[in-house]
Amino acid sequence: MSAIPFDQLDGQIWFNGEFIPWRDAKIHVLTHGLHYASAVFEGERAYGGEIFKLREHTERLIESGRILGFTLPYSAEEIDTACSELLRRQGFSDAYVRPIAWRGSESMGVSAQKNRINVAIAIWQWPSYFNPEERMKGIRLDLAEYRRPDPRTAPSRAKASGLYMICTISKHAAEAKGYADALMLDWRGQVAEATGANVFFVKDGAIHTPTPDCFLDGITRRTVIELARRRGIEVNVRAIMPEELSDFSECFLCGTAAEVTPVAEIGPYRFAPGEISRQLVSDYMAEVTPKRIAAE
Ligand SMILES: Cc1ncc(COP(=O)(O)O)c(C=O)c1O
User: Fold this and answer.
1) Element (DSSP H or E) covering residue 18
2) Of 29, 97, 150, 254, which has the fewest CB atoms closer than 10 Å, so is most exposed?
3) Are 240 and 270 spatial neighbours (Cβ–Cβ below 8 Å)?
4) CA atoms within 13 Å, Cβ hemisphere of 126
5) Which structural domain range is residue 282 located in?
């Protein structure tokens, strides 16, 4: 990642329908989204000049806004076109794509019924979340203190900015202890996910992953389940208790940013990145590679 602060990079940002210079993409300090977390966003990756599962991400962005009570003022087609055109203008082949929608400054109370819904898209280069060498060795996870909330407490199906407050706190606490990330339990004490990625386990050649009933049902998660089933690997989507962690031989995380990343440790539990993790790391990379490149 660049040492230059993100507001000082160069290029263009798509901002409410226009391509503007990167450094001019500013908002006022009195913005509802900043004070009350009335914002939703997406994280996408482009491989070989194509954004992987762009339409699914765009639809989730629109749905996240709907869950927070607002309608994005652009159609899925318009957002997709803006993302693809911005990728072309930025001149990147492999990159990270960040669309965001937020309530503006028209009023500054809890109620913000008439605030403008703003939408922006930025694209930057973001190599692997965890460095490649560390990836196959498996990363180390702490057990987070915060839990994913009950869906009656927070809109857990939305990729909403406010839900990331406990993720940043948990990730910082893990990093302070030398871990790469943290595994979060849910409000019932079941295994949920990491701070920005879903989690999978392997036992006796079968995959086990938690039911996404109070955390994000990741697009990568769904892709990995499909890839595993294509290989004939059994996938069990079910409630997983932390006491079971000692029964699993392999563990990996998956998400747009994390891709498929093996895990070697979660608190006191140890895993050995093995055949199934290796297979899915490689199947996922093949799946995200545009067909025209794979054919070369
Ligand atoms: C908290 C959280 N869970 C899971 C995921 C995985 O979602 P996706 O695969 O759609 O990127 C993400 C985002 O990448 C996330 O931030």
Assistant:
1) strand 18-21
2) 29
3) no
4) 17
5) 132-288
How many domains, the chain? 2
**Do 222 and 139 share a structural domain?**
yes
Nearest protein CA to atom 15 of ligand 1, as residue: 196
Cβ–Cβ < 8 Å for 123, 87: yes
What dihedral angle (degrees, nearest 10) is formed by the CA atoms of 148, 150, 156, 162?
-60
Which tokens belong to 252? 């990996």
Averages of pLDDT over each 10 residues, the chain, 296 residues: 85 98 98 98 97 98 98 98 98 97 97 97 84 78 98 97 98 97 98 98 98 98 98 98 97 96 97 94 94 79
Tokens encoding 23? 């450094």
Q: Is 161 in the pocket of ligand 1 (CB under 6 A)?
A: no
Q: If you take atom 5 of ligand 1, which residue's CA is the nearest one?
A: 197
Q: Count CA atoms closer than 13 A to 174's CA, side-chain side.
A: 25
For ligand 1, mutation pick of 54, 159, 209 (most atoms within 8 Å of CB):
159
Most informative mutation of 169, 198, 252 for ligand 1 (most atoms within 8 A of CB):
198
Catalytic machinery residues: 159
Closest by Cα among 245, 248, 247, 250 to 274: 250
216 lines ligand 1 (CB under 6 A): yes
223 lines ligand 1 (CB under 6 A): no
Give the separation between CA 249 and CA 32, rounded to whole angstroms. 46
Ligand 1 neighbour 58 (Cβ under 6 A)? no
193 lines ligand 1 (CB under 6 A): yes
Q: Are residues 146 and 22 in the same domain?
A: no
- Spatial CA neighbour of 226 closest among 239, 209, 242: 209
